[in-house]
Amino acid sequence: MSSFFQAVQGGDEAAVASVSLAAFDGTVETWELVEVGPESVAPFELPGLYEQLMKKRSEIKIVNETNANYAGDHRELFDEYKKKRAEDAEAMFEGELGEFQTEWEKRMESQSELEEEAEEINAIMKVLKSAAGLSLSTSINEKFDGNVKGKELHLKVNDGSAEKGYVFMLRRYELTNKESTLTPMSRWIITEIKEGA
Predict the structure, then answer these.
(1) Predicted local confidence at residue 159, as pLDDT
(2) Do 131 and 3 meet the contact criterion of CB atoms below 8 Å apart?
(3) Per-residue pLDDT tens for 141-151?
(4) What's the pLDDT band for 95 if we cut at 50, 70, 90?
(5) pLDDT of 176
(6) Average pLDDT over residues 163-183
(7) What is the pLDDT of residues 41-77, one digit of tens each?
(8) Are β-strands 144-158 and 163-177 bridged in parallel, bridged antiparallel, or unpaired?
(9) Do residues 34 and 87 share a domain?
(10) Which residues lie below 8 Å from residue 44, measured CB to CB, with a gap of 6+?
(11) Are residues 94 and 144 both part of a single domain?
């Protein structure tokens, strides 16, 4: 914490980023550690998320192929639908074209939902890789496994005119590369800063 606040006081953004994923908004005159919360331990989620992502991508591939086949089996309706929707994106059709529209847009909605779910998993993975990489000072991928330690620090920070309470969430990633069996040295990093007692 001393290194973090010294970096904040000196306006050294690079030094702040070397120990924290979270920025601290405001100035710091003095700070005081009030309480250290209990330490927690949880499994590193990246390997499981990677499996979920691969499964989701397989589902998307199957759905894409199925929808492509459906479009191919209804080529004239598909071409007419595309042409008319290009002219009017809000157009609603009747008859045989209307039936195709209902089915096709239902398929596209389901496909879009799967793709959004894959994007959400990927976004979570990026955050985990970033945090673990900072803690271990190395690039992280799905081959790393192990535990994540966490704890909350409650602090009082004086900006020169008033004192405010903050909660700092710290994480330490104790991981091993299952492929190389290497275990990088880990350190505590700041992952979140919240204003409040």
Answers:
(1) 87
(2) no
(3) 999 999 999 99
(4) very high
(5) 97
(6) 95
(7) 999 999 999 999 999 999 999 999 999 999 999 999 9
(8) antiparallel
(9) no
(10) 128, 132, 144, 145, 146, 147, 148, 173, 175
(11) no
Query: Quick one: 134 and 175 in the same domain?
Result: yes
Domain end among 119, 134, 154: 119
Residue 20 and residue 109 in one domain: no
Query: What is the distance between the alpha carbons of residues 16 and 107, in angstroms, rounded to a whole number?
Result: 47
Provide the number of structural domains found in the chain.
Answer: 2
Q: Is residue 197's pLDDT more than 70?
A: no
Contact 20, 189 (CB under 8 A): yes
